[in-house]
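One-letter codes give the sequence; each number marks local geometry. A record appears below:


***
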Amino acid sequence: MIGLNTAAVYILQTIGSFYLLIVLLRFILQLVRADFYNPLSQFIVRATHPLLKPLRRIIPSLGGLDLASLVLALIVQYVLMALTLMLMGVGVGDPLLILVWSLIGVTALLLKVFFFALIISVILSWVAQGTHNPAALLVNQICEPLLMPIRRILPNLGGLDLSPIVAFLILNLLDMLVIRNLAVSTGMFSGLSLAI
């Protein structure tokens, strides 16, 4: 029975985390004002539309922030955590605490998305500079708002762009000092969120 529960947790977290990532990407794409005619953007829009449509009637956007997709990400993370706790045999416990853990999990995943987008962007700048691949264009659109303020501060070093290194440092510091400390201080179970 324990093996079946472990397998169920694995399947639940894999499928649920993939959908959570898609929902969070929908939020990020609107946040960075990415090209919604990009084929990958269209996939993300179509995958999230059925659940976002009713939420948009209740939750309006605020200053360019797609709050409905952010709320949907929190709901998906909450349901994933509650189901994982039940499958682990712990029980659901305090709903407010699971909501706090959901906030931590979604924030951690948001940082991870930017982190891995930066890695992909750096690799593409070495091997496929100037490519017109839809995925590469989308990754650059996600990274650019994060790198632009850093480029304004750093001195121009000719053809060498150090802004991704500074961005990596900032993202890792936020993850180590804020997210992981919050997870530990709230007693978050390890394995509840794949991003932590």
Notes: Residues 82 and 95 are 9 Å apart (CA to CA).
